[in-house]
Amino acid sequence: MDNTDKLHKHDFFENYYKQVINLYIDQDNWHSFNELRKNFFFKDVNNVYKIIDSPGQSIFIKDYNDDCRTLYNKIKSQLFIDKEDYRAIQQFSVSLYANQIKKYSDKISEMEQGLLIWLGEYDSNKGINLAAAEIGDFIV
């Protein structure tokens, strides 16, 4: 943001969140959306939303920190990943597109439970280090 003074204006966040909501709900449906929501018609509310189709797939960064390694060791011995573990996994996951998953398949492993694990380098400031994954392309 170039002008940080906007953050101190009383209507900045209201306008910001209106723009975010507009990504998911057509302005034409806004009134009906609120009425449906107030009356607990959740199936109809669901139909009003415009869900953005995301072709990405989550990859768990098992070596992000010690908590991740502990979580990884816990779930690799389980038949199923429970809801609580999935929530913990989400905090330490990134999304990659199908072509990236294919390209870096040597850096990705799939657990028996179907969870994809990143085996390559990870930088807490920059994220997945795809450049390091590609360095092997330059070695003759």
SSE layout:
Elements (H helix, E strand, L loop, with lengths): L11 H13 L5 H9 L3 H7 L8 E4 L5 H10 L7 H8 L2 E4 L1 H6 L4 E3 L5 E3 L3 E2 L3 E2 L1 H5 L6
Antiparallel strand pairs: 1-2, 3-4, 5-6
Helix pairs in contact: 2-3
Number of domains: 2
| SS element count, helices | 7
Radius of gyration: 21 Å
Give the helix/strand class: alpha+beta
Most strands sheet: 2 strands, antiparallel
State the share of residues found in helices, binned by percent: 40-55%
- Gap from first CA to last CA: 44 Å
- Strand content bin: 5-15%
Shape assignment? extended
Q: Which runs of at least 5 residues are low in confidence (pLDDT < 50)?
A: 135-140
Give the averaged pLDDT, no decimals: 79
Number-wise, the strands total 6
Which sequence of SSEs, written as H and E, runs from N to C? HHHEHHEHEEEEH
Major sheet: arrangement of strands: 1-2
Verbal overview:
The protein has helices at 12-24, 30-38, 42-48, 66-75, 83-90, 98-103, 130-134; strands spanning 57-60, 93-96, 108-110, 116-118, 122-123, 127-128. Helix 2 (30-38) runs antiparallel to helix 3 (42-48). It is 41% helix and 13% strand. The radius of gyration is 21 Å and the shape is extended. It has a two-stranded antiparallel sheet. Strands 3-4 form a two-stranded antiparallel ribbon. Strands 5-6 form a two-stranded antiparallel ribbon. By secondary structure, it is an alpha+beta fold. Residues 135-140 have low confidence and may be disordered. The chain is built from seven helices and six strands, in the order αααβααβαββββα.
